[in-house]
Amino acid sequence: MRGFDALLLAIFMIFEAGALLLITAMLERKKSGRSLDRERLLFFFFFCLMPVCLGLLKLFGGLGLLVGGCLGGVMLTSALGFALSFGRRPGASGTAAGEGQPLPEPAGMKVYQIYYQGEVLGLISREGIDRLLANQLLKRQRTVELVDKDRARAQEKGVEVRLLKNPASGQVLVKVESRNP
């Protein structure tokens, strides 16, 4: 065995060991339900790189049987890792992780924009609109608008109107609660 063949063999064996370690790490990430995009890209890159190496080694006469076999092993391991990165993750597709039971449907809430003195105040749920309408705290016009002096009138009627602001996005949510059921 020439020194060049030994160097190539060592390089491809390191690639093989790295691919096997990456597969084991990927399977752990898969169990925890995290994204596998990075691993998928690495396996695809290695799978595409190995035929280029094969062609160059063949062209320059450095392809021996042992080096070619190691190169083929790296290609197969990369193809296996790439295929495993597409497998179904636990908890995906409507089942709870490890339980096999269907996940509950996410509770959606429809929200509406509410205005105060002609400007957007925030978002409010349909339940909040119903409470405000029942206590005559909304003006019915083209837009849904709170009446002037809404806090004072709301306190008189036993309704609390709270404004919750998200500091990150600046979005305001209008929360309406009845003090007496």
Structure description:
Helices cover 49% and strands 18% of the residues. Helix 1 runs parallel beside helix 3 (65-84) and helix 2 runs antiparallel to helix 3. With 181 residues, the protein is an alpha/beta fold. The chain has five helices and six strands, in the order H-H-H-E-E-H-E-E-H-E-E. It folds into two domains: 3-84, no CATH class; 111-178, no CATH class. The chain is rod-shaped, with a radius of gyration of 31 Å. Strands 3-4-1-2-6-5 form a six-stranded mixed β-sheet. Strand 3 and strand 4 form a beta hairpin.
Poorly predicted spans: 91-99
**C-alpha geometry:** rod-shaped
Proportion of strand residues:
15-25%
The total of helices stands at: 5
> Helix and strand succession?
HHHEEHEEHEE
Helical fraction: 40-55%
The neighbouring-strand order within the major sheet is 3-4-1-2-6-5
End-to-end separation in angstroms reads 88 Å
Oligomer: single chain
Radius of gyration: 31 Å
Q: Round the mean pLDDT to the nearest integer and report it.
A: 77
Derived structural class: alpha/beta
How many beta strands in the DSSP annotation? Answer: 6
Q: How many structural domains can be distinguished in the coordinates? A: 2
Largest sheet: 6 strands, mixed
Task: Set down the secondary structure blueprint.
Layout: H1 3-31, H2 37-59, H3 65-84, E1 111-116, E2 119-125, H4 126-134, E3 138-140, E4 144-146, H5 150-156, E5 159-165, E6 172-178
Parallel strand pairs: 1-4, 2-6
Antiparallel strand pairs: 1-2, 3-4, 5-6
Gist?
The chain is of the alpha/beta class and 181 residues long. The protein has 5 helices and 6 strands; from the N terminus they run αααββαββαββ.
